[in-house]
Amino acid sequence: MAKILILLAALLLPAAAFAAAAPEGDPIVIGGLFAQSGPAAVVGTPSKLVAEMTVAQLNATGGILGRPVKLISYDTESSPDVALRQARQLVEGDKVLAIIGPTSTGEGLAVKKYTEEKKVPAIMTVGGDAIIAGGKFGPFDWTFKAPQRTATAVDKIYEYLKGKNISKIAVMSSKDAFGQDGLAELKANAGKFGVEILAEESFDPKGTDFSAQAFKLQAAKPQAVIVWTIGPAGAIAAKNFAALPGERPLLVQSHGQPGPSYLELAGEAAGGTIMPGTKLMAPESLPDEDPQKIVIESFIKAYKDAGIQEKFPLNTHSGYAYDALALLRAGLEKAGKADPEALRAALEKLQNVVGVSGVYTTSSQDHNGLHGDSMIMLIVDSGRYKLAP
Amino acid sequence: MLALYLAQIVNSGLALGAVYGLMALGFSLIYCASRLINFAQGELLLLGGLGIATLAGVMRLSPLVAVAAAALAGFLLGRALFATTLGLTLRASPLRQLMLTVAASLVFQGVAILAWGKNPLMPPRLLPLPDLRLGPLFFGRDTVTALALAFCAMAVLGVFLKYSRLGRALRATSQNAVAARLMGIDPVLCHALSFALAGALASLAALAVGPQTGLRYDMGLGLGLKGFAAATIGGYTSLPRVFLGGLALGLCEAALVLFLSGELKETATYALIIVLLVAAPAESEAERP
């Protein structure tokens, strides 16, 4: 079964361009929501390009269910309000079958409420778990998430710290939904790993200087500080920590950071910081039997061939839009028809769909389908990401 | 513990305070020469900084060349700002001139977005100054850079205003524009010069603040307002006092952030400015700029 699916996934890529019949009939219309400006643009803009690249690949290899795929995408400006407005436009104006994106957790929460109501399947590329957590965040029947859960990344970090005998930590989280989501998970899982959180601070992700927070956390004398944010704020925090006098704690970033922009913005301060990331960040470390290896290698090649690499060098998020479309394709093929309810039902019964970020196996309770084994711990060493020792 | 907190306040307060001080000097120069508040001051910093960052990406800049290039770029930017706004409306009402600088600031912001995009840019550190420890005090390299730049700029500016012919003309215009004109000083030249000098100061401030916080298209207004506030606290007339106003503002802000929270930074800082401006002894007629 797994082998067949690997083959299926490989089919998505032009490297395996079988002589597929040209897709015909009405296109399947998919909506895309990507933050192409604002703080999440570093993730959103390349996501859009990857989505377009993947759709082109799909159409070149026979489309989905023999029909061509059409992607209509909008810029959410990293704002929940704008994202919601664009989602309305996609559903009511463009009559899309399903939505992929948006980029940030705050946007995801805003869009989710609406798509659940309208019964539109949404495969989101957001970092936070709230969209598929249920409980106070509302039902998530129609909402799926391609990137790893926050909890998966948190477990990965705690496991690593435990291995290094680090048990006293401090947490610095951004005040947006992504940061709060991370803070909640870090607190909830600390006990399980025998980790004690000595101090916590929050900051505005649009801020430009967090040295006061960094200073206060350092004063609590933790062995490690976990910074939970996405975008440039993480690099600023790294710089602020590096500028502190005296003994500095080990700096851990969230799974939202790995990528060249962090290295560029933080410069020397990035050295020695560790973070969980997708296998995309260190493809050379993958063993041959890893089912993701072939998918990741072909993805990287396609990413370069499409010219995206020049503008947006690969980062840990690069694969999410691809994965969202891979899930969509697997769902539609399982459903056998382009119908929202059938697609929804199929999306929560997927098995071993090999994507760039991991091998997905979903259930009605697990609308993500990825686990700790899909992540690796990275360390920044002389301006590059390496597998953390 | 308290000593550590104080050291941290001094360190981060002076780093930003020096930048506010440089901005405040720019506000004062323009205000004294033309009785105008230049709301595009923050954008002069932004564009100057972005320009230098781009230049540094293309070629290696030695520290001295970087400072000179920044000052020159700022000088030209300030001159261009004057040529496109105030220079065309010398006789217009002050309100119209003020609005022109506000409009120019937004246009400059648009230019920054078009040319450099909306993502922050982290310029390289062009002045390789080391961290400094003085007893219990610690000055990070950003703080040292900002202070060094600010003091050097102020010293050069002071010498220029005091001893050079042009500087004296500028001072004469700010003391009494009519009398200065009767003495054969060209007021338009002085106005233009004040804008250009303010631009140079803002651009130098960008060298200090850029590697600290990064440069982003929307940072100009916040920094500009802080400079304006600092200049008002400093009283516009005396350069050292205006600069001290900037340092004081930076220190207050750092203290507020540390003891209250980063969230209330702007609110608390401006609340303090209200108190300062209301409670400060009124300046006498002679002191009034």
Describe the fold and architecture.
The complex is a heterodimer of chains A (389) and B (289). Chain A is α/β, with parallel strands linked by helices and 389 residues long. Chain A folds into two domains: 2-147 and 286-371, Response regulator (Rossmann fold, 3-Layer(aba) Sandwich); 151-254, Response regulator (Rossmann fold). Helices cover 40% and strands 17% of the residues of chain A. The two termini of chain A are 34 Å apart. Chain B is mostly helical and 289 residues long. Chain B has a single domain, classed as Orthogonal Bundle (ABC transporter involved in vitamin B12 uptake, BtuC), CATH 1.10.3470. Chain B has eleven helices and two strands. Chain B has a two-stranded antiparallel ribbon with strand order 1-2. In chain B, helix 1 (2-34) crosses helix 9, helix 5 (141-163) runs antiparallel to helix 8 (187-213) and helix 9 packs across helix 10. Chain B is globular. Classes of the chains: A alpha/beta (389), B mainly alpha (289). The A-B interface holds A 37-38, 41-42, 175, 202-204, 207-213, 215-216, 219, 232, 235-236, 239, 243, 245, 261, 264-267 and B 1, 4, 8, 11-12, 16, 118-120, 122, 124, 131, 133, 138, 140-142, 212-214, 216, 219, 254, 257-258, 262-263.
Topology readout:
The complex is a heterodimer of chains A (389) and B (289).
Chain A: H1 2-11, E1 28-34, H2 41-60, E2 69-75, H3 80-93, E3 98-100, H4 105-118, E4 122-124, E5 143-145, H5 150-163, E6 168-174, H6 177-190, E7 196-203, H7 211-219, E8 224-228, H8 232-242, E9 250-253, H9 260-266, E10 274-278, H10 292-305, H11 308-311, H12 320-335, H13 340-347, E11 353-354, E12 359-360, E13 375-381, E14 384-387
Parallel strand pairs in A: 1-2, 1-3, 3-4, 4-5, 6-7, 6-8, 8-9
Antiparallel strand pairs in A: 10-13, 11-12, 13-14
Helix pairs in contact in A: 2-12, 3-4, 5-6, 8-9, 12-13
Chain B: H1 2-34, H2 41-58, H3 63-84, H4 94-116, E1 132-134, E2 137-139, H5 141-163, H6 165-175, H7 177-182, H8 187-213, H9 220-234, H10 239-259, H11 265-279
Antiparallel strand pairs in B: 1-2
Helix pairs in contact in B: 1-5, 1-6, 1-8, 1-9, 1-10, 2-3, 2-4, 2-8, 2-9, 3-8, 5-6, 5-8, 6-8, 9-10, 10-11
